[in-house]
Amino acid sequence: MTNANNAYVEHVAIRVADIDWHVRFFREVLGMTIREATPEGQVPYQVWTIGGVQLMSFPGFEAAPSNDAGRLAHLGIMVEDRETALAAAQRWNVKELPQGRNWLQLPDGLAIELIQAHGDAVAEALAVQPRA
Predict the structure, then answer these.
(1) Which helix (H) or strand (E) element contains residue 89?
(2) Which of 87, 130, 123, 91 is nearest to 114 (CA)?
(3) Total number of domains in the chain
(4) Residue 75 resides in a domain
(5) Cα–Cα distances in angstroms (integers) from residue 114 to residues 4, 40, 126, in the given order
(6) Residue 1 placed within a domain
(7) What is the pLDDT of residues 93-120, one digit of tens each?
(8) Which Pfam families does the record match to this protein (predicted)?
(9) Distance in angstroms (rounded) separating the CA atoms of residues 14 and 53
(10) Residues of the chain below pLDDT 50
(11) CA 72, CA 15: separation in Å to the nearest integer?
(12) Among 13, 47, 119, 124, which residue's CB has the most CB atoms within a 10 Å radius?
């Protein structure tokens, strides 16, 4: 049976305690650059990355120190080179989770799973311009 409507997740919005740390981590470790941001001082301050992550900063927001922070279970992130991303992530005070060395917990509790892409899957996904 075919579905007339196909869909994918365009972005996931995540509340974070330190948005600047998260922007730097997603950019420097995973190569996710900023696509859009609200003006500084706007509440909530928000940043969207190319790659589908929306980071939201609210004054006074405190994340729980464990993965049960209530935000979401984890982010599965497809990477071109998992070993390079894992090596880069180690310099960011992340914690390896019991699920495996490619499961990382960021300092304020957000969990990510780094998944090795095959072929040009990442480049092909990033080439899609759904808002154009």
Answers:
(1) helix 82-89
(2) 87
(3) 1
(4) yes
(5) 31, 30, 17
(6) no
(7) 999 999 999 999 998 888 999 999 888 8
(8) Glyoxalase (PF00903)
(9) 8
(10) 67
(11) 10
(12) 47
